[in-house]
Amino acid sequence: MKRLAGVAVVLGVLGLVTAFALWRLPSGDFLVIPDVARPLEPRVEVEGGHTGKKGDVYYVDVYFRRIRLLERLLPFVRPDGATLVPEENLTPASDEERRQQSAAEMDRSEQIASVVALRTLGYHAVAVPRGVLVTSVASDAPAAKVLHPDDVIVAVDGTPVRTPTELRSQISRRSPGDEVRLTVRRNDAPIDVTVRTIPNPTDASRAIIGIIVDQDAKIRLPIDVGIDLGKVGGPSAGLPFALEIARQLGRDVTHGCRIAATGELALDGTVLPIGGIEQKTIGARRAHVDFFLVPPGANAQGARANAHGLPIIPVESFQQALRKLTTSHRKC
Fold first, then answer.
1. What is the number of other CB atoms lying within 10 angstroms of the CB of residue 176?
2. To the nearest whole percent, how much of the chain has pLDDT over 90?
């Protein structure tokens, strides 16, 4: 009996050690995990602005980490709301490159949000679009042979493009497999490259190049705007940034409510789709906000599917967001 008890103890210890190892050891793929929404007021400083008004604007974020072996074997031990993302679906390839890209996207998002908010409030903010910045290229796309991060696309088959929307419009006129000539500014010198389009993974009839892009623009602001979210990166906080800037400059944005928002902003104020909408909706819910502003279309559908009673407000532009917050708010 003593021997059996000793064996049981040894097996129990080995089981605990194995479980601990499986929990600690990372695997190759990633989990995208909800993070609770947080108020922007302590993170944003606007020259001449004032804080302390009732109500807050919240930003939402997600975080990525490598999935642990135990989580791969037993999906029920994964954090609530987590989604598995294969490593090959992420670009760039290395963790450090992804961190650098995310930080650069955040910097551009802050600048564009500042321009949009200040222009809407009547300030003279200068923003001259200079082309479409390539931030990453899918390694398995034909474009990987001729395009590089930091290239700036300025024309498609001779037609000038200055914004990501104009680039998408031009590529949407092509069919998968078509060749297009792109004029690219690289190291301040123009060059022409030929790229073969590929099918969109979500709609095989639509053509894409296989790149992630952002706005390249010359920006000059009339007042100082400082935003610091620490290690948070990416472009999807543009809409809440603009709302908080407007709030600090005297616009009644929240009407006493707690407003969470997500969405990348274009220079004209258009709200662009973002990733991780399921996790961001969960993060907004956990913060007990009163409303959640999201991009329209698939993002709004995904948010509603995970809202569990949280009111979802789809907005196509920053200007529309201000109008809807004025007409749709309730007492909070």
1. 15
2. 58
- Verify that 252 and 168 share a domain, yes or no: no
Which has the closest alpha carbon to 224: 106, 48, 40?
Answer: 48
pLDDT tens, position by position, 53-106: 778 999 998 887 888 888 888 888 888 888 888 876 665 556 666 677 777 888
Closest alpha carbon to 108 in 210, 218, 223, 273: 218
Q: Per-residue DSSP letters for 240-306? A: HHHHHHHHHTT---STTSEEEE--EE-TTSBEEP-S-HHHHHHHHHHTT-SEEEE-STHHHHHHHHT
Instruction: Tokens 């679009």: give the residue.
Output: 129
- 275 lies in the same domain as 229: yes
CATH assignment at residue 151: 2.30.42.10
Q: How far out from the chain centre does Cα 137 lie?
A: 17
